[in-house]
Amino acid sequence: MPRRGRIEDRSEDSLDDVALDTAVPRRAPPRGRGAAGNPDSRFASRVYQPDPDAFEPEDDVDRRTRFLRDSTRSVISRNSSPDIPFDVSLNPYRGCEHGCAYCYARPTHEYLGFSPGLDFERMIMVKEDAPKLLERELRKPSWQPKTMLLSGVTDPYQPIERRLKLTRSCLEVLRDFRHPVSVITKNHLVTRDIDILAELAEYDASHVTLSITTLNEELRRKLEPRTSTGPRRVDAVRELSAAGIPVSVNIAPVIPGLNDQEIPAILEAAAEAGATTAHFILVRLPGAVEPIFLGWLEAHYPERKEKVLGRLREARGGKLNESSFGKRMTGEGPYAESIRAMFHVSRKRNGLSERSFLLSCEHFQAPGSSSQPGLFGGQ
User: Fold this and answer.
1) Which of 285 and 21 is assigned the larger pLDDT?
2) How far apart are CA 235 and CA 329, in angstroms?
3) Count of helices and strands (H, E) across the chain
4) pTM higher than 0.70 for the full model?
5) CA 334, CA 313: separation in Å to the nearest integer?
């Protein structure tokens, strides 16, 4: 059935003149997804404007996840932000099937010509050559070893990793070089790679952070639909810790009026499971994330919407997002200070400390050459 509407040309507009679509969709996201729709990329020169009088069944939008080859020739990203304690990171995937409605990385998909909405969750770019490219970088005489973050933008253990094992292949390269790595994930699948991480831990060269947003399964299913449950993440903390791998817990994000009251319980569970350090991040809504999250909030928790947004504005100087370094992660003002106080008291009570990313580079070495077969059947 043809879609009724028109194509609007905005190729003559500058990016500064193209406003984000702030309309809040009132329908619930499709099952297993975080975004309710597919807003246009802010870089699109042409956008589709549907006919408001035409009925378009939701089935017209393809909900299947697709995996596309990413032909990038470099996999090392460099960071200069003072808010992030890493200089280099590695992202085997772009886009994330976890579908977290609040994900700050959604706008990165716009640079690829995709929507930050459903496309971010269903159009996953796979860096098939990541292990080979990583090894090439580490073998350069100019390479200076330093703790590498895996992955920093999208989750390295999203569902497709179970089959492709791309993250595991990258960890094998890092192990062979005895290169320090810090992993951040919401998925219990990280325990599959305990053998590699434990071997690196013997050289003080591995660290894992489990991001635990909530222990409330009803909230988790709506907020992070394709992630591991809260208890499964706590189990991952326990298994990693038992294997001698340093583990931290990050309560990220803290969302006012939704999960802020869970901070003490999450830290208690994390400490009991063997975590030694902990941190938190206040929810961030940069660019296109704001309308997507507002749509999610309207669909799932309309009765809490004003409370959530009111407290967030209080912590963001009257805005819903703050991009300034030093403020964007934790906020400021009375509400932000109350969150910090609750977190610090709970962290101290449970014997946890501030997380540290200082890992050892002294055992770094270049092994003999190796090859990595193509994950899609190629060489």
Assistant:
1) 285
2) 27
3) 11, 13
4) yes
5) 11
